[in-house]
Design goal:
The chain is α/β, with parallel strands linked by helices and about 260 residues long. It has one domain: Rossmann fold (3-Layer(aba) Sandwich), CATH 3.40.50.720. It has helices at about 25-35, 45-60, 75-90, 115-140, 160-180, 205, 210-215, 230-240, and strands at about 15-20, 40-45, 65-70, 95, 145-150, 185-195, 250. Strands 3-2-1-4-5-6-7 form a seven-stranded parallel β-sheet, sandwiched between helices. Helix 4 links the parallel strand 4 (about 95) and strand 5 (about 145-150).
């Protein structure tokens, strides 16, 4: 009896990942490359992208990653990122839109208009732009996978992260609508909702002993998430293992939001 163990094989695929030079994005880029995909490591700072791409290539013992800088706040930079990905690696099979911002910490009553607009533009509109840019490659093939990083913050209000949470709930709505539109064309679109992960982006939320003790005591797995906890779900979403999964908010939170 022959057994097929290639369910998670990504050989021959091309993946574009934003916010990929460190943290969760870096771990997801590493995982896709380890399973055979060619990967574009992208963030605002080229030197950090190059360092991550070199690390991935050394780990895989062959050139599977390239570095391309881009700022998600500028449509022309995103288009250049997509164009360069196609030119250097080929048509895009997987998009992980992981980059995001949170420029304001405080009450909704106090947030300046420019911070509100920047949050919504970078966390929602840029995802819309990027999805529209990569979709033609996937539609032409009749298959493809998009993963947009949302947050468990989308499931509740917050006295200090209200606008950020609103943007992340909007990302889930975007995912559902694109999944509906593109499902008949073979393109799957999902949201990733991390809980509290020990990354630089979330440092203000975990780098405090009292807050850390409170959060971990309320998490069934009794620990914070780590960047490498996202390697598996990245491979799952990019591979045929998730061929019937679309329009979902995939929550990775150690059980903290199992009731949401």
């Amino acid at each position: 009896m022959s057994v097929n163990t290639n369910l998670f094989d990504l050989t021959g695929q091309v993946a574009l990942i934003t916010g990929a030079s460190k943290g969760m994005g870096k771990s997801m880029a590493m995982a896709l490359a380890e399973h055979g995909s060619k990967v574009v490591v992208s963030s605002r700072k080229l030197d950090q992208c190059e360092a991550t791409a070199n690390e991935i290539n050394e780990a895989c013992e062959e050139d599977r990653a390239i570095a391309l800088a881009g700022n998600i706040g500028y449509k022309e930079q995103l288009q250049e990122l997509v164009d360069q990905t196609r030119e250097q690696l080929g048509p895009i099979d997987t998009l992980i839109s992981n980059a995001g911002i949170n420029p304001f910490y405080g009450s909704m009553s106090d947030i300046p208009d420019d911070a509100f607009d920047k949050t919504m533009a970078s966390n929602v509109k840029s995802n819309h732009w990027l999805c529209q840019m990569v979709a033609p490659d996937m539609i032409a093939k009749g298959r493809g996978s998009i993963l947009i990083t949302s947050s468990t913050g989308a499931f509740s209000g917050s006295e200090t992260l209200g606008t950020y949470n609103i943007s992340k709930l909007a990302d889930i709505a975007l995912v559902r609508n694109l999944a509906l539109e593109w499902g008949p064309k073979g393109v799957r679109v999902n949201a990733l909702c991390p809980g509290l992960i020990r990354t630089d982006f979330a440092r203000a939320l975990w780098d405090n002993p009292e807050a850390a003790a409170r959060v971990t005591s309320q998490t069934p797995l009794r620990r914070f998430g780590e960047s490498d906890d996202f390697k598996g779900i990245a491979v799952y979403v990019a591979s045929d293992a998730s061929a019937y999964v679309t329009g979902q908010a995939l929550t990775v939170c150690g059980g903290a939001h199992m009731w949401s």
